[in-house]
Amino acid sequence: MRRIWLKPWIFLALLTYLGTSACSGNGDGVVLFSVEDDKALGQKVAAQTDSTYRASGQLLERNVVANQRAYVLLDAVVSKVLSSNQLQYRNEFPWDVKIIKNDEIQNAFATPGGHIYVFSGLIKFLETEDQLAGVLGHEIAHADRRHTSRALQKEFGISFLLSLLLGENPNQLAQIATSLGQLRFSREYEVEADDYSVRYLNGTSYSCDGAAGFFVKAAAQVTTSIPEFLSTHPNPGDRVLAIQAKAKELNCAGRTTDNAGFRELQSRL
C-alpha cells in the first residue's frame, strides 16, 4: 500500500481549514497553500498552459526571433508595474508574461505564483499603454494578493489541489490550465484587484486609472468574446467609478504617456 506523507504545514493548514469550514460553513477565504506551494502549483499550471497553447500553435514563443521585439516591448510595461514598490511578493514570485495569439479574445489571466498570460486580442483592442498597464496591474494583483489560489481552491477543492502538489493526478493539470481564463473571482477580489491596479500604476509614470479606460471602451462595444473582466461582478460602470475615485484620492490620473512603444507592440502581433 502506498503511503502519502504530508508536509507538517499542509497537515496543520488542513486542520485549520477544516475547523474554519466547519464553524463558518465557508472556507473560501482561507489560503491553504504556502507561498512556496503557490509557486510550485503555478509552475506546474504554467507549464501545462504553455503546452496547451503551444499544441494549438497559439503560444508566441520567446525564443523565436520574430517574437523577441514584441516581448521586449511588453516586458518593459510589466517591469514598470512590478517596480512600483507596492507588491507583496515582488521578489518571491517569478513574474513572467507570455502572449497567446488569438485576436478574437480580449482577456488576460494569471496563475498562482505570478505567471501572466495576455491574449493578442486584448493588446490590439486597447488604445493606450496606460490601459495595458492597468489591465496587467489588475492581473498581477490577482496573483500577488493570492486571489487565484483562493479561487482555484473554491472551484476545485482542497484535496484536488493537494493531489497536484503531491504529484498525483498530473493529467488533471489541463483542467486547471483551461479554467484560468474563465475563472470567476468574487466581488471582493475584483474590487481589490482594481484598487491595487491603481496603486501599482501610482508608483510609475503611467496614468493610474488606465484600467478604467479599458472598461469604458469594452462596455461600449459588442465583442466576439466578452472579456472576463466584464462577465463578472461588480458591473463595469461601478468599477470605472471606483478606479477613478481611487486615482483622484492618490492624485495620479491624467499623466501623459508616450504610446510609440505600445503602437509598435500592436503592429508586431
From TrEMBL:
Superkingdom, taxonomy of origin: Bacteria
Record flagged with keyword Ligase: no
The keyword Nucleotide-binding appears for this protein: no
Cofactor annotation: Zn(2+)
Any one GO molecular function term: metal ion binding
Keywords on record: Hydrolase, Metal-binding, Metalloprotease, Protease, Signal, Zinc
Pfam families the UniProt entry points to: Peptidase_M48
InterPro entries, sorted: Mito/Outer_Membr_Metalloprot, Peptidase_M48
Gene Ontology BP annotations: proteolysis involved in protein catabolic process
Domain Peptidase M48, chain residue ranges per copy: 75-245
GO cellular component, one term: membrane
Cofactor note: Binds 1 zinc ion per subunit.
Gene3D superfamilies assigned to the protein according to its UniProt record, in alphabetical order: Metalloproteases ('zincins'), catalytic domain
Signal peptide: 1-22
Similarity-based family: Belongs to the peptidase M48 family.
Protein name: Peptidase M48 Ste24p
UniProt source species: Hymenobacter roseosalivarius DSM 11622
